[in-house]
Amino acid sequence: DHTKECLRRLGNPQDKFKVIHVAGTNGKGSTCAFLTSVLREAGYSCGLFTSPHLVEINERFQINEVNIDNDTFLKAFEKVKVLADELVAEGSYHPTYFEMLFLMGMVIFAEAGVDYVTLETGLGGRMDATTAVENPVACVITSISLDHTAILGDTIEKIAGEKAGIIKPGVPVFFDGSSKKAAEVIKAKASELGVSCREVTKNAYEIQEVHRKYIAFSRRSAYDKDVIFQVPMCGCYQAMNAELALEASEYLLAGEEIHMDRWKEALAELHWEGRMERVGAHITVDGAHNPGAMEAFVESVKALDESERGEMVLLFSAVSDKKYDQMIEYLCENLDVKAYVVTQIEDERGVPAEELADVFRRYTDRPVYCKERLEDAVRTAMNERGETGEIYCLGSLYLVGMMKKLLAGGAIDA
């Protein structure tokens, strides 16, 4: 209600474009990017609001797949700050950090005159600031697993209930049906509101090839079963995210001429940072930061040909409110790794490197190196990989951002 009041005072900028609202535990950002890419290929001007950012805050706001510039950011910030100051002066409240960014996004996209905005939730769905948008044209819910359990609940069903909170009367929902427990909750909510509900399962597509630089998959629909789609990321989970985006796009563009060959090009040319992204000759970063994402990471790495996978060195860090013990146990039990290197994230929630190292040593007899500074950790990982090994960096999006910043600075030749 607070956020709705803020939007009202800003002139309801969210009513000036069509919104696709996306929630889920993992895959939200990638699915948002796929949707935006397809809609762009169909000739529409598109805004994209995602979180968190990896290096620069501007990444959270894209117009036609380009980050906004500093001037655009500043003008929107100043406009929302005037509102925030008015609220405080009235004895009300100051919008939260995420609310400020969300409100800025709505202002930015309205002033840019975009046709569509793909809107990623920040946390959960039911009580998320983005749910103040009352009339999206479609809702999409990606994979659901245990994350933010202290806030969203400690079971899949409870978390699914929070994510399903984005569903609105009269608005169709497309969702990842991989989890039966989550699917039941989402379908029940859709039924309660009497809305069209499209469950997407792994039967909707078939992965044809997993390469270090891409995955290829075909859809099992009769219409385009012979079309091979390529996504320039090697995460197997991206096939589901792309399929969700394609099915939602087919609904949104119903009645228009659909050029599937151009949609295919749109997906193939997409660049989405931090998800099984190659950042050096032998370094891959992945934003996996919860147990469900770890399972997806392991599945993706195992799907690679052994010659491409190489001898694995894992570089890992995590923040304290994540189930890092569970993540580490899963990695150690399900991957054949040459060595582990742990480091510390530059954030007050970062888990001390030595504590992470102790957890790894409980679950593996492979070498575990503890390096507080990321630069030292990367150098150690590079030494350990030898001539043919591969370094995989994961555990937190904060770590991915730190890696990208370090490599961009030229301190290490990757």
Kindly describe this structure.
The chain is α/β, with parallel strands linked by helices and 414 residues long. 41% of the residues lie in helices and 18% in strands. The strands form 3 sheets. An 8-stranded mixed beta sheet has the order 4-3-2-5-1-6-7-8, with helices on both faces. Strand 14, helix 12 (324-334) and strand 15 form a beta-alpha-beta unit. The termini are far apart.
Q: What is the C-alpha radius of gyration, as a whole number of Å? A: 21 Å
Shape annotation: globular
Extract low-pLDDT stretches.
none
Largest sheet: 8 strands, mixed
Strand order of the largest sheet: 4-3-2-5-1-6-7-8
Secondary structure category = alpha/beta
Strand composition percent: 15-25%
Number of helices: 15
What's the β-strand tally? 17
Overall helicity: 40-55%
> What's the overall average pLDDT, rounded?
92
By oligomeric state, this entry counts as single chain
Distance between the termini: 48 Å
Short description:
By secondary structure, the protein is α/β, with parallel strands linked by helices.
Name the features:
alpha/beta; 8-stranded mixed sheet; 414 residues; 17 strands; single chain; 6-stranded mixed sheet
Would you spell out the secondary-structure blueprint of this structure?
Layout: H1 2-9, E1 18-23, H2 28-41, E2 46-49, E3 61-63, E4 66-67, H3 70-89, H4 97-112, E5 116-120, E6 138-141, H5 149-152, H6 156-163, E7 173-176, H7 180-193, E8 197-200, E9 205-210, E10 215-219, E11 228-231, H8 238-252, H9 260-268, E12 277-280, E13 283-285, H10 291-303, H11 306-309, E14 312-316, H12 324-334, E15 337-342, H13 353-363, E16 368-370, H14 374-385, E17 390-394, H15 397-408
Parallel strand pairs: 1-5, 1-6, 2-5, 6-7, 7-8, 13-17, 14-15, 14-17, 15-16
Antiparallel strand pairs: 2-3, 3-4, 9-10, 10-11, 12-13
